[in-house]
Amino acid sequence: MGSKMEPQTKELVRAVGELAVAQQQLARQAEQVYSVEVEAILRDQCCEPQRIECLLDWMLDFCFDDGMLRLFKKLCRYYFKIDPMATASYVYAYREMWDEEEDYKNRGEV
């Protein structure tokens, strides 16, 4: 972007950049908090759908982030053994929100 950029455009670019940084920072914080809960669910072999599904719901909002997506997949793999239908609904919710249709068809994964 050259020096001929209008001041309003420069301000918009700066503001968007700040939002992107803040979004990534928030994702890091969320990943730290949710990883503790995911590990507790796995360690305790929790089978409570409400607890697991609430966590998956919260995590979905941050699945734009690779670290959170790995955590989401980990919990989905665990939950699949408990409730395959509910887990599938979370996989489809993820795909609707974050994945390009052709990407997941080509990879064959969440």
Question: Brief description of this entry?
Answer:
By secondary structure, this protein is an all-alpha fold.
Could you characterize the architecture of this molecule?
By secondary structure, the chain is mostly helical. The chain contains five helices and no strands. The chain has helices at 7-44, 49-60, 66-80, 84-98, 101-107. Helix 1 (7-44) runs parallel beside helix 3 and helix 2 (49-60) runs parallel beside helix 4.
Please give the number of β-strands: 0
**Proportion of residues in β-strands:** under 5%
Helix content class = over 70%
Give the C-alpha Rg: 18 Å
Average of per-residue pLDDT values: 88
- What low-confidence regions span 5 or more consecutive residues with pLDDT below 50? none
Structural class: mainly alpha
Number of domains: 1
Encode the helix/strand succession as letters. HHHHH
Broad shape: elongated
Distance between the termini: 36 Å
**Biggest sheet architecture:** none
Count of DSSP helices? 5
How are the elements arranged and paired?
Blueprint: H1 7-44, H2 49-60, H3 66-80, H4 84-98, H5 101-107
